[in-house]
Amino acid sequence: MILEIKNLSAEVEKRSVLKGLNLRIGEDELHVLMGPNGSGKTTLAKVIMGHPQVRITGGSITADGKEINDMPVNERAKLGLFLEFQNPVEIEGLGIVNFLNSARGALNKEKIGYKEFMSEIKQNSDRLKLRDDLLGRSLNYGFSGGEKKKMEILQMAMLKPKLAILDEPDSGLDIDAVKIVAENINEFRKKNRSSVLLITHYSRILNYMEPQFIHVMDDGRIGREGGKELLADIEKTGYGTDDAE
Amino acid sequence: MSSHKEFLADAMSHYESLPNETNEIYKKYQVDLPLRFAEAELPSDSKSHAAEADSVCSEIESATKIKFDAIISSHYAKSNSPEVRIYGTDDVDKDALMSKMFKSSEDKLAAFANASSKHFIFIERAGANKQGLNMLFVNTCNLSSQVFFNVAPGSKLELFELHVSSKDCKGIASTLREVVVPKESEIEINSIHNENEGTDVVSLCKCRTDEKSRFRANFVYVGGRNTKTKNIADSAGQQSSVDISELAYGSGDQKFDLTTFITNSKPYSIARLESGAALEGKSHCMLKGFAKVDNGAKGCLSKITERGILLSRDARVDALPDMAIDYSNEVKATHSAATAPIDREALFYLESRGLDEKQARSMYIIAFLGKYVAGMAGGVPHEAAMSIMLNKLDKSPYTAMPSLTTKGAWISSRRNA
Fold it and tell me: Which residues, in sequence order, are CB contacts of A245 under 8 Å at separation 6+?
């Protein structure tokens, strides 16, 4: 999938957040999006996926040349977009296995037998070092922050999107878990030749990855762009804005 | 033996003399049912009612593969199990019955049930038999039954009750259960009410547990016009437990008035109540849970959780959890209530995984409903409850076959185990 965002402006509750943003993500590419708090990273992730609270006021988002500005959320998922939530919702009573089974059905994924399906879940779960009992529980219900993040990565691995937007997959993870998540993202990309837009505040996760593009957001736009060498600058000087942490 | 007429006259007179409600708060939150069975309304042709009940039973058995051990309808009852004995008003020993009956001196609902009951059902269980019992209640024109349990210490019993109405039937369907759970035994009642829109539902359950015994009851109210319930459960043995789950899934103009009192009266006892309501249309549900911790109930656990989701703008839930704690040392006691519309962020989450808006909404609702049947014994009761609720949600065909097709709502293994 090729995702192109041109001159995109968007608001949340009448507050302008994205202000003429441009971004292109090609096939099989790993992009990293960084930037200070409030610069619009999560809003960008949400608007690509079609969150109802984010209103596009100008510009366009296209996937493989098709404008998706007004496309329903589930149709975007069917095109191959996936959003890993910064704060995954908890739904008590909704079992993970059946949820994934239903999602795969909705996305028209190839039909596989129950045993094969369960085996695939187990393999991905083991690779993420998730406890076995979590798979028997309700979706994210009572999970720790780290378990929720891993569950999002598990969903990505099972649903095999063409472009995954990962909104801070490393936040709240311990050192070992950051490495595990990074390795799983790499494995997912290698297997599916999918693209990833990874939003993060910290360069630690990037020690285990090879991003081709680094973008730094600043007040609703892409400010600086470059390769992995940009990370060293950011580590040294920060984002260079008043809001930088 | 006193005559049935005298008994009925006494009971009805007592019923008439009682106020609808004595609790000042509950007076403001109650479904005021005009409970009255006129003799003239009772069916006289028992044969046609038997045929109707048998026909309904065959239809359900065929659609769901459930086999019922007993069928009870307005003027007809039959048992296929030696563990279920059913008496009519003419052959039951009223004096012996009085000693077992719900203490109705101040309870109008119980007094009504006592005054109107036509079937007296005795469930017997002794020894190692672990087979569950399935009972079908078919309201063909006013149905009132009382169920008594005679369970030997150390036994285990699971009772599944399915309550329905015959087509075009109107009237009241009343069920009163009197449960004593003897030492080291377990009783579980799974009751699903799916009567038609012409039926007012009255459901009562009184329970007392003995030492190291367990009582679990799961009540699911889907059908009916007005539903009024009262459960009174006393965790009355050391290390005994009472777990009650009740769920109203309403639509249209349905009204539900669910009242449950739980008591911890002995040390290290457990009493928990989980009440829920998922309401569409203009339906209205009152969840009234009251927990009492008696003096001396050291180390006990008391918990009330009331949850509601509003699936339309006009639906309404009144959640009124309350507690009275007479013994405050080493007691864990909590109550909580929350009601909210459907969570938009959760719907976005589900839609982002490929489900359309309708599928996402259904999945969210089923997940909520599923929590309240998760505690049911696996197999028949659980599948039947989900099947009936799915049929109400989106007209899914009835089924009771275990499958992965419950619209993505996986139901966890039993809670609080």
Answer: A36, A37, A201, A238
Q: Residue B283: which residues within 8 A CB-CB, separation 6 or more?
A: B250, B251, B252, B253, B254, B255, B256, B315, B316
Q: State the Cα–Cα distance between residues B80 and B2, nearest whole angstrom.
A: 29
What is the per-residue pLDDT across A196-214, written as a single tens digit (0 to 9) for each?
999 998 889 999 999 999 9
Note whether B353 contacts A92, CB cutoff 8 Å: no
Domain membership flag for residue A84: yes
Q: What is the CATH number of the domain that holds A34?
A: 3.40.50.300
Q: Quote the pTM value.
A: 0.89
Indicate whether A33 belongs to any domain: yes
Residue A151 domain-assigned (yes or no): no
Q: CB within 8 A of B316, min separation 6: which ones?
A: B279, B283, B284, B285, B310
Q: Does the beta carbon of A135 lie under 8 angstroms from any beta carbon of chain B?
A: no
The residue range of the domain holding A23 is: 3-88+162-237
Can you list the alpha helix ranges (DSSP code H) found in chain A? Answer: 41-49, 73-79, 96-106, 114-127, 145-159, 175-192, 229-237
pLDDT in tens, B11-53: 777 777 887 777 888 888 888 877 765 443 445 566 677 888 8
Is residue A244 in a domain?
no
Q: What is the ipTM of this complex?
A: 0.96
| Domain count across chain A | 1
The H or E element containing residue B357 is helix B357-373
Residues of chain A neighbouring B354 (CB-CB closer than 8 A)? 74, 77-78, 103, 106-107, 159
Query: In whole angstroms, what is the distance from residue A197 CA to residue A190 CA?
Result: 15
Q: Does B219 touch chain A (CB under 8 A)?
A: no
Distance, in Å, from the CA atom of B315 to the CA atom of B2, rounded to the nearest integer, reads: 48
In angstroms, the CA A48 to CA A54 distance is 10
Given a contact cutoff of 8 angstroms between Cβ atoms, the answer to whether B176 and B113 are in contact is yes
φ/ψ of B14, rounded to 5, equals -65, -45
